[in-house]
Amino acid sequence: MRTAIISDIHGNYEALKCVLSDINDQNIAKIFCLGDIIGYGPQPEETINLIKERKIISVMGNHELALWDDKAFNRMNNIAKESINIIKTLITDNSLNYLHDLPCKLTQDKILFIHGSPPDSITKYIVYHSDTEFESLFNTYNEQIAFVGHTHLLIMYSYNGKTIKLQNLTNEKYKLEKGNRYIISVGSVGQPRDGNNNAKYVIYDSEEVSIEVRFVNYNILKTAELIRKKGLPEFNARRLF
Questions:
Q1: What is the DSSP letter of 177?
Q2: In this structure, are strands 30-33 and 210-216 parallel, antiparallel, or unpaired?
Q3: Which terminal CB of the chain, N or C, has fewer other CB atoms within 10 Å?
Q4: What CA–CA distance (Å, rounded) separates 111 from 88?
Q5: Whole-number Cα distances in Å, 96 to 48, 114, 154, 187
């Protein structure tokens, strides 16, 4: 079975539409979203509605949490805070309720889906762990594979019971080694931060036991113009390029 994992859309409706179009061509059985459906981008309501329309299974991201959790909100930088305050005016109560009810994590077929870091953190960044901390981290949950978002980067951590291996990912297919455990950061649909401005997502193939990273073009200029039109911080537009 082939499963698509998307993350960090951040209200970038144009990027999401193009990613879903690419997913339609890939013989995908199911789609999971790792949170941050909303955030820096100009079309949060349209993005939420499309997620719901496509029945995409999602967990909560820190930008969703910040809509009502003061601690999560105060942890953000000023641009993220300003964006959240504007986004509150762009979504309906129905969408707010939908986001509020998202789970912090999901487990299916021995795979963990979470926004931040295993075992159950929405807000921790996986990239800040040392090798020693990773070894302890892998002992806090049972799943063989954990897919995470939050970093906006494509990174794979593998653990064979003795050593931690870090691998930066690009638009290729990667075979997962039997017996190893993995934490895989799937990049961002709506605001990549890896030096390549394509929308990114990952496909997991349970039969091949492999992942494939997909890069997808979309109309960046249209999203940037909408960011400015909606009064969101200019930095949000520039960061897309």
A1: P
A2: unpaired
A3: C
A4: 32
A5: 10, 20, 29, 25
Domain ranges of the chain: 2-238
Question: CA-CA distance, 227 to 225, in Å (whole number)?
Answer: 5
Tell me the mean pLDDT in the region 198-202.
98
Strand pairing report for 145-148 and 173-175: unpaired
Q: What is the model's pTM? A: 0.97
Backbone angles phi, psi at 204, to 5 degrees: -105, 125
Residues 18-27: tens digit of each pLDDT: 999 999 999 8
Strand extents, DSSP E, the chain: 2-6, 30-33, 57-58, 105-108, 111-114, 145-148, 154-159, 164-168, 173-175, 181-186, 199-205, 210-216
Taking alpha carbons only, the member of 46, 75, 78 closest to residue 61 is: 75
Residue 164, helix vs strand vs coil = strand
Tokens found for residue 214? 């997909």
DSSP class of residue 176 equals P
In sequence order, what are the residues at sequence separation of 6 or more whose Cβ sits closer than 8 angstroms to the Cβ of residue 60?
Answer: 35, 99, 102, 103, 104, 115, 122
**Preceding omega of 42 cis (within 30 degrees of 0):** no
How many Cβ atoms are within 10 Å of 48's Cβ, its own excluded? Answer: 24
| Structure confidence by residue, pLDDT tens digits, 129-171 | 998 899 999 999 999 999 999 999 999 999 999 999 999 999 9
Residue 2 in contact with residue 29, Cβ under 8 Å?
Answer: yes
Query: Residues near 150 by Cβ (< 8 Å), separated by ≥ 6?
Result: 7, 8, 34, 35, 36, 61, 62, 115, 116, 117, 123, 124, 125, 126, 185
What percentage of the chain has pLDDT greater than the value 90?
98
